[in-house]
Amino acid sequence: MSKAKRYTPENQVLNTIKTGVKGILLFIMPLPVLIASIISLLKGNLVNTVLSGALFTAFMIAAMIARHGFKLESRFRQKRFAKAPGAPFKSIAGILLAIATALTAFLLVDYSLLSSLLIGAVTLIGFYLAYGVDPIRDKNSDVSLGSNADEVFAALEAAEEKIEAIKNARKDIRNLEFKQHLTRIINTAREILDTIEEDPGDLQRARKFLKVYLDGTRRVTESYVRTHKNDATTAELDKSFQRVLESIEKTFKLQQQKLKQNDQFDLDVQIEVLQTQLKQEGMF
Cα dihedral sign for 141, 147, 153, 155? Predict the structure, then answer.
């Protein structure tokens, strides 16, 4: 039986806050360049205005690329089984930041070429010391039962995208009870992904389970939101949506336990029951 670390929304919120704060200095540091650009504009120095503006833009682009790299790294660090980010966003940001700093020193502050290059090199080293390098190695656990690493990576990524879609749709739902159902469903889905990350061999038994439940939940939730936006909701539609959410939540929890107990037969039976109900409700 797999033992997965329980997913907690509080941890995700804390990680989101830390990631949001990380790198804020990269946006503050080039403010003097922006001020220099404004002063040059007021003095009518068009060349310096354009140079300062271009360099400030380069600093901002570097900061945004770095922030994207920080977010990808944070997601990677939180997982036990994950694929390393495809592009070295942090390194790209560090190099761009170093180039912008060197050019600023050379073109705006009148440092010598050698001094400017040294300042750029120190900036790059400082960036790496402060933020580290990009993850380059995948987090691979032992994969068994016919699954290979790429299959597990792809399945987990697809599941994450469906969960994010459900979360986005939930934001547009005003009914508090429906939102609470979806929150619990999302949390259970996260726990199941934790189980798979802990033991990727569970993927083969969970593949159909994840597809039906996550696809079904995403489709019915997005369909309900679209209908609600068009002011076409009815009391019967609300009742139908509530029945489906209650069924998904209940069966999801039940099958999470079946998955941990390696009970393949009951898992498939309950999936077929849910598929039938979704079709009967006209939502699948």
Answer: negative
